[in-house]
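Subject: Re: docking follow-up (thiamine diphosphate)

Dear J.,

Thanks for your patience while I sorted out the input files. As discussed at Tuesday's group meeting, I've set up the holo structure prediction with thiamine diphosphate included as the bound ligand rather than trying to dock it afterwards. The sequence and the ligand SMILES I used are pasted below, so you can double-check that they match what you have on your end before we go further.
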Amino acid sequence: MNLSKETLKELYYNMVLIRHFEEVVDEYAKKGYIPGFVHLSTGQEACQAGVMKALKETDYKFPDHRSHGVCLLAGTPKERVLAEIFGKKTGISGGRGGSMHIIDIKCRNMGFNAIQGANLVTCLGTAFASQYNNTQDVTAVFFGDGTMGRGEVYEGMNIAAKWKLPILYVLVNNRYAISTRVEDVHSYPENLSDRAQGYCIPNEVIDGNDVIAVYEAASKAVKRAREGEGPTVLELLTYRWQGMFSGDPAAYRPKEEVEIWKEERCPIKRLREKLVQDKTFTTEELDKLNKESLEEIQGMLKYALESPEPEPEEAIKHVYVGREVQGR
Amino acid sequence: MRKLSFGKAINEALDQEMERDEKVFVLGEDVAKMGGDFGITRGLWKKYGDKRVKDTPLSEAAILGIANGAAMAGLRPVAEIMFADFITEGYDQLVNNSAKIHFMFNGTVTCPLVVRTANGAGFHAAYHHSQTPEAWFLNVPGLYIVAPSTPYEAKGLLIASIRDDNPVIFLEHKLLYEMEGEVPEEPYMVELGKARVRKEGKDATLIASQRMVYLALEAAEELSKEDIQVEVIDLRTLFPLDKDAIFDSVAKTGRVVLVNEAPKTGNYVNEISQTINEEMFEFLKAPIKRVTGLDAPTAFAPKLEEYYLPHKEDIIREVKEIVEY
Ligand SMILES: Cc1ncc(C[n+]2csc(CCOP(=O)(O)OP(=O)(O)O)c2C)c(N)n1
Ligand SMILES: [Mg+2]
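The structure tokens for the complex came back this morning:
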């Protein structure tokens, strides 16, 4: 595939945006502005930016707990994603969900679920609805290597294949669940996604830090799904730079391992070097994009910080349709 | 006496039981090398090794299935489900298997497993990491439910749970893990099915468990300044229910407020209310009241979560209402 300059620019910008976004979330979580805990996707930007570029706004997206970037690129006003993480009234779900439950039905972000694995069967339903309504919309579901332990993954794959559901499985293999490595707890650690073959679902193992490769593979799989050929599993090999959550010392993994991924396999550095080498962009042009993304983030941050907290009574709204719940 | 945190007290109970009985083993997500998401199993893997401290993948149904099978085969599993909310992913194993094994085998097989799990709100973790699940299990004959509120009881009740031949759901409120308290060094048991009177009083009875015990105690403290003497009962075991302790108190006070942080409708404490109604009606001087979470999922933002959760003021209001009834 020969990517246009515009596409390459967008991929680069979106990765940088996710990087800076996560840095701000990390900083403000540590400063105590963000309640609860946040799972950062720093280091995995290419997986999110690459797949999202292959999707349309009407495609269903099931981000997981480590998917701020997916939510950011889904089409939601970005400042409302950050405001949600801050638990503000202006957050995309009014502060009721936070980092793990960023949703937006307008752009079909179905990210309400923090029970790992559950999305792997819920996604069948949206894909089925698209098939039912003949809309050609695809459902993309993001999940980790750790979540491959859950039975729903396999119940889901079996039906998805049998019914030829338009699903893009995005298996983000960052080698760890929380502290357990793939090889510690999985019976076939080489390529986790090979399991899909048992259900007649094609799988592809891709360098998840190569945004172009991710984008191309996702585009191919999405096309296949749109044309009624059924699901594909993309296994994206990557690494989370941070611990399980912001502030996790992650003592369970060797420092050298983290360093290698940061220094030698940074997805942003990698695209940057390629773009400069190919003379697609100059370093100055790319620096300018970095600066623009920082400015965009500053705008989001200001919005999130200045937004009010939700009114307490919001806590009991929308439990039922057309029915109120007794408050205090 | 020596002080330990609630979390360390549980850790010590696990360690001492593993030391005492080779049949005891621990399994769950990240329980081995990392020592658990909340650090509760820290050190056990180093001491007892891979055979007895098992890291599993994210596989709640398998964790509880293994526990059931191993228990039937004579081992004594202590399974950890990281957050109580995830128990639903292995719910079938508990409801349809653990609870019914002794019955189905006509009394010839027991299922002596313990499922430890972190429950409760107040952690700003939203609706999939905040629930309090005892009511989900109450309507399932065959299960014990234990819910300590102090480090002393955490250790003693866990040891008793491991040694008991019934399947036990052992609830650990995540906001109590850091709480310090006196804990004897030697192994000891706190008898299952026995409540404890945390404060004596004659005007009304507050019945609570886990973190809600502290809210009840604070409310009782404030009410005593207005000369209302409230008795506070810490249930400690939610099933089987210590009717004697409850009835003794009701006979004395004739007024009851039940406190629990789960939603009101279908709340665990409703069972207590009905039990008192059936067996102690003539002692009641006022309707039995509840102070609970609201009938909604637990939202994320602190203001929303706070509104969902019961507060000391709610307890004080209800006590005053029934005292003046
Ligand atoms: C059913 C269920 N079990 C356990 C958890 C706790 N938990 C959340 S994320 C996680 C690890 C997930 O690993 P992986 O799928 O590889 O995603 P990663 O964090 O690496 O992005 C665990 C154990 C959960 N949320 N849901
Ligand atoms: Mg992972």
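A couple of observations from a first look. Chain B touches chain A through 40 residues (CB under 8 Å). Residues 6-20 of chain B form the longest helix (15 residues).

Let me know if you'd like me to rerun anything.

Best regards,
T.
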